[in-house]
Amino acid sequence: MPPDCTPLQTPGPLAVIDLGAHSARLEIAQILPDGQIEEIQHLTQPIRLGAEVFVDGRIHSANVKLVAKILADFSTVMAECRVQRYKAIATSAVREATNREIFLSRVERLTGIQLDILEAPEEARLIYLALKEALAGELGPGIGNALICVIGTGASLLMHVRDGRLQCAESVRLGTIRMIEELAGSVTPGHAREVLDPFISTMIDWSGRFSAVTQSDRLIAIGSTVRSLARFSGHKPRSRHAEITRDDLRVIATRTAGKAATDIAAEWQLSDTLAESVQPCCVMLENLIDIVATDRVLVPMVNTRDAVLSDLIREVRGESDPFEPEIISAAEHLGRKYHYDQDHARAVANVAVRLFDELQELHELPPRARLLLEVAAILHDIGFFISNQEHHKHSFYLIAHSELPGITPEEKRILSVVGRYHRRSMPKASHTEYTSLSPENRLLVSKLAAILRVADSLDRSHTGRLRGLKIQVEDERLVLFSPAFRDLGLERWGLSRKADMFEDVFGLRVVMMGQQ
Amino acid sequence: MSTHGAKRFRNRELSWLAFNGRVLDEAGDRRNSLLDRLKFIAIFSSNLDEFFMVRVAGLYQQIESGSRGVAPCGTTVPEQLRLVHRRVRDLVKRQERYLLEQILPGLEAHGIALCSVRDLGREERESLLQLFEADILPVLTPVAVDTSHPFPILTSGAIELLVELRNPQSGEIVRAFVEVPKGLPRFVQVAGNDGGGAIHVPLEEVIVDHAHRLFGSNIIQAVFPFRVTRDMDFSVDEDDASDLLSHLEKQLRRRRRRAPVRLEVAKDAPRALVTWLRDELEVDGPSVYRARAPLDLAAFMDFGAAAEVPGLAEQAWPALDVSPMPEGMSAFEAITNARTIPVFPPFERFDPVVRFLAEAAVDPDVLAIKQTLYRVSGDSPVVKALQQAAENGKQVTVIVEVKARFDEERNIAWARRLEESGAHVVYGIRGLKVHCKALLVVRREEGMIRRYVHLATGNYNDRTAKLYTDIGIFATDPHLCRDVGALFNLMTGYSNPPDWYKLAVAPFDLRRTFNALIDREARLSSGHRPGRIVAKMNALVDPGVIERLYAAAAAGVRIDLIVRGTCCLRPKFGCGNIRVVSIVDRYLEHSRVFYFENGGLPEYYLSSADWMPRNLDRRIEILFPVEDAATRELLMRMLALQLGDRAKGRRLLPDDRYTQCFGRSYATRSQRSTYELFVRRRTVQRHHQVQPILTPITG
Predict the structure, then answer these.
(1) How many domains does chain A have?
(2) How far is CA A310 from CA A188, A368, B78, B502, in A?
(3) Could you give the residue numbers annotated as active site of B?
(4) N or C of chain B: less Cβ packing under 10 Å?
């Protein structure tokens, strides 16, 4: 769960540290009285974590020390500006390192800076919000139908947007440097394409199989290498987005063909890592252009660091998360993937969030829990895709193994367990998926599952006839009053089987009343 | 460049010597006062010393290393050396003529005399004996050369006496050296002469006169002064130096032993002894200079200044207060109000910079101070303020360029002192000299971080700020401040260079930026509206930039270059569109100002860099834009005055010679006019400042 955010009067300078696969960056900014954001400091240091992790799977001691040195310098600069709040995130390389926990703890001990791993779904959320903002001038508020690709050195992220709503975000273990490292030996200058083309198209095809990416109207690409390519395609400095055409890619490919990375680095004034990435990135983009059947790539000039900073600023200002609608649309997309009953899911979700809102004093849960409840309500029945038998258990593992943008791994566990408890057994000591949660999250799961069960039982007919439902707490009862219908037998039967958990968790008996 | 053939560039060394010739012209200029002319004699010598220590030494190094390199001008190294020695001999002859035939007699007529000991009366010599025994003798250390004492290491630049002695008993001949102590005043004022004027004798003559007291019963057969100049140009091999500072200290100690590149001897020195010296020092024939005048004429810098005889020195131009920063107002408030405050030393006082720092050092809201220090004066108030700030708990970061030539020892002393007070001292960047002049103050105001910068064309040196014309700018522009912050992060090794908003920084993108600015001018130039570049700097050497200027001139761009010193550009390749002027006057022209017309949207820049390869490729230098309208107007007017200077501005002609300016008039003397411009401006601003009070209060 993101920390509970209380807006501060004068938050002072804010900082973001971004430890990526090939560089560490620090950005310090402040919110001016007129609401504008002023960049105060921007530091960047090269560090080759990616190459090491993609090959050996771990970060070696020398690099731990180097990271510690860089972060200690960053920390000096932060202290100089009296930074009060910061977010320090580590992306792909650290995320994949087998010794990531040891690495994080050593870095914290040496520098006092607490690094968090930026997991792919969270990265998707941040990047998506940042790119939407960057493209607002070009595309207006919506993105239409688009395929978004965040090309990293170790992994990439594919996002599919339909009618301006995010459908899915999926990370693929396909990054520019990883490709070179994994295909080491087979990629020689001049022959990169022959080797990379099939590799890339297989990866992308696989990911696109369940998503209508081919129906996208446009291709949007992000990543430091993509931005470098945009610069060579005549991008104006400081404009918020750029375009790379198929012809541009061809020119770049011709100009770099047969050249060693060090020569490209010198000629184009790039870091060695970026220079190495140029050719694989070109090949990836050309493949994507073919898939989307377009002739150009739109490049929003945003990076992870900017995205994290914008998010931190929203947090400091106490603004709600603008990504929540996308989480809902992605959950619905996931539901469709498993042929869910859309009307039922929506009806249950509607009732569940109404119960959540009306019973705020009772459950005392934060706003984020409302979103989790809604997502759990949308997905609670997807287990039917596997089998009618024990479908709640199938829902559990389908949710647990799906990628949901904007949902943290811990939240996903919560969602899957809530889904599991939408029917049948209440939590037991033998349920490890439940007992392995923290005490707070166990309580959260119980509260959400209790509400979800009531909502689900009210739409037994799966016809969504609960419009105008009135909710009241009186004596030791939760009274649900449906003015539109007299015959509530089905709902009452449902309640009799499912309200037990609610009574157990909140101490209220659930009563259904209809038109007299 | 080979495609264009050689000869498209003037020879760098000869061009520099031509500059020093212009300095010498000032010593010969009868319009100048006698003491000012004497100062130019001293400056000429001091410049020439440095030239030998660095440039001539460099040529000899090239010969020794067997390099067969050819300068961009197409001249080989031996040929350059031949030309250099010939030119220097001519110049020194001229210097001696001015000094001995014009200036010293002129001063004597005003009662300030430099005499030989031989010319003194008995009483006066008597008084010198007392002085010798009390103050001089105790610090003299004669060093003998014989079979058991090898030839000693002689200090570069010091005046030495060579004494040839004969033992009256054995008849044995012994040679000895006596170094004239640098710690004593070079010119000794003779007591006993009646009031009004002053008679001086050179210190070395006093020692010669009493030299027999140093050698007991030995008989002095010959004694004469001489001076050795050594190669002082060394580079620090930083890859080998884990601790740059101690490595540098070691190098400095070794300096005493470096190869001699010049031997100056008194004109009447016995030939045999000079030959012996030459052989021992391993100096070639052309490097031996016989002097008619006293040695080390740089010592004349302060000669006669104490006499205070009216009319002997040009009236001072008292430095003006920087008006937007009045006394009593906080420097931070003043900068915030004005947004941009330019400072033009020495026409204006350097104080605001010191004041700004001193205020920052004690201001409780100041969080951090960062500064580059290249050459700072002895007892520098800048260093004191930084020390105080560090002691007050501010984060003080100082980038000290310990490699600043000839100032290394002094710089090491500052560096150590600052470290002791808690400042974070960074000794430059590996392989690059930090030459930019930048100061950044980070302050917390109402919960916000606010930054102030001061960027300048010259060093943070309160002494040179009285002699060098530089331009500094105080500003709070957030983009500029962000860039300067990034510049410091770069220099402290905290970060790689970012995308700059406003700065261009060498060795990263400064050359590219200058190229782009020149090329743009060429591109925008049309017959109807020719492009225009005005560039002012100390030296123009870089072949790449010069070729671009030729190309721009060919495209019709009108180019005015105000280059004080070395200029390797040859106007005859400028298609009639390039004019070069060099101004040598009482202040040393030091600012670097660049104007590009940009098709009617003019851009003004200031920089720490000259157009020389070392500035563009091997140093940290900055170029920053001037966007404040009032400052731009001032720059425009200053440049116009300089381009119109017929009193002290010399034009470089297509035949590579400079015009002389021995005219009578001072009417178009740009430094004078610039000073007057500042006086008028201050009056106008004062007038404006009182205006609001007179505005009727309505309502």
Answers:
(1) 3
(2) 40, 19, 65, 24
(3) 435
(4) C
